[in-house]
Structure to design on (433 residues):
């Protein structure tokens, strides 16, 4: 069976590239699963989403992806993330800390878009690292 | 004579310490170019992908009717993003960019368009404030190590002003393109209204695929185009950073060479002066001895 060629890139570097059997990402419309021979799609990804790349035989590649796009064409899948981090690279303690700070300021009543975004991002990073949130 | 010798010694030691400084600057710049080039390389995949995505959308949707792509019939003002460096010691780097920006300003004014400068880099900002030119916006402090957040900040300001009713109608960017260690060119590009440029000629490529959009074409375009502009600006910043280091290296290398040449000339002059002094001393001693001998002979 044909494989997907997947590339996860952020503006400052290429985060990961390789072959995969399936890619699951979260667009603004909901989760989308891409398998080989998928029709060309260009989707907008949500802030603080988790990307899952299924590879036969190996463990899944999980990454926290903040905003950006997924583009699929001819078995090429590119994830253009404004910022992204592999689950294995996530600093769990720092992410927990960030989440806690965001939550405590939300509880304190100073809720604005920035803080909500920070909470979302921290949650995505924790989920990518395989932590319970 | 002794005075001249002392003077030359002092000048040599001062030129030597200058040469030491410029040599160090040269070495620092050389190592920084490599890093700047790596950062440039690392940004290439994203830029290629986003260009592909934009051209995919533009070729898929028959009428791209987005504020960022529509050309105004009567443009009356244009934003010019001028990318300069924060620090000097880099030869003609900033002068070249500013000269090109002035030329563009002239061209725009011929067309009846007012040019509004947006300036990156301390050198460009001081250039503009010294001449009392009003700037649409200015940023500094990151010319050597631009991050994507910096590019985003600049793009936000530009796009904001572009979308305003009485804001700018076009955005041009004047920056330095890094071709190689030896060649850097100043380039002028229009980034808005959008002209989709392929970073590499992909003419042999097949027809772009017919995309489906999630959630829909308009919304995808809405979030894709600003990202595209950001990535163009980020690319310009990175190229400019690499070019800055390259021209700094070159300027410092020629400064070091000049200093070494000066040291050579001064050393020669100093040796001549020393030799002349010794010769004179000898002839004085000989003359004195002769005079004594003559006086002794006269007594006898």
């Amino acid at each position: 069976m044909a494989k997907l060629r997947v590339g996860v890139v952020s503006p400052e570097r290429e985060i990961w590239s390789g072959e995969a059997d399936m890619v699951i990402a979260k667009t603004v419309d909901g989760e989308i699963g891409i398998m080989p021979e998928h029709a060309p799609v260009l989707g907008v990804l949500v802030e603080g989403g988790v990307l899952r790349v299924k590879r036969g035989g190996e463990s899944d590649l999980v990454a926290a992806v903040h905003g950006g796009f997924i583009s699929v064409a001819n078995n090429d899948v590119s994830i253009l993330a404004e910022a992204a981090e592999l689950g294995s690279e996530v600093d769990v303690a720092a992410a927990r800390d960030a989440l806690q700070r965001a939550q405590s300021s939300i509880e304190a009543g100073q809720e604005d878009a920035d803080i909500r975004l920070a909470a979302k991002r921290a949650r995505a990073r924790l989920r990518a690292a395989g932590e319970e949130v | 004579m002794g005075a001249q010798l002392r003077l030359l010694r002092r000048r040599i030691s001062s030129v030597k310490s200058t040469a030491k400084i410029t040599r160090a600057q040269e070495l620092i710049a050389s190592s920084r170019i490599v890093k700047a080039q790596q950062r440039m390389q690392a940004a290439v995949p994203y830029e290629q992908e986003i260009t592909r995505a934009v051209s995919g959308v533009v070729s898929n949707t028959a009428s791209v009717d987005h504020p960022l792509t529509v050309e105004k019939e009567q443009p009356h003002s244009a934003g010019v993003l001028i990318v300069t460096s924060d620090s000097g010691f880099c030869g003609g780097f900033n002068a070249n960019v500013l000269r090109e920006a002035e030329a563009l300003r002239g061209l725009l004014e011929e067309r009846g368009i007012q040019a509004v400068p947006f300036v990156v880099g301390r050198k460009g900002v001081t250039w503009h404030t010294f001449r009392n030119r009003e700037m649409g916006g200015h940023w500094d402090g990151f010319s050597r190590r631009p991050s994507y957040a910096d590019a985003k900040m600049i793009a936000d300001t530009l796009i904001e002003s572009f979308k305003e009713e009485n804001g700018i109608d076009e955005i041009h960017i004047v920056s330095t393109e890094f071709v190689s260690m030896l060649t850097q060119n100043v380039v002028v590009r229009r980034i808005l209204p959008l002209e989709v440029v392929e970073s590499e000629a992909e003419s042999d490529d097949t027809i772009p695929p017919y995309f489906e959009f999630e959630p829909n074409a308009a919304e995808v375009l809405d979030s894709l185009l600003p990202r595209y502009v950001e990535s163009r600006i980020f690319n310009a910043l990175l190229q400019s950073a690499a070019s800055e280091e390259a021209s700094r290296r070159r300027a410092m290398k020629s400064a070091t060479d000049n200093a070494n040449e000066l040291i050579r000339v001064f050393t020669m002059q100093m040796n001549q002066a020393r030799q002349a002094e010794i010769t004179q001393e000898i002839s004085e001693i000989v003359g004195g001895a002769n005079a004594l001998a003559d006086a002794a002979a006269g007594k006898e």
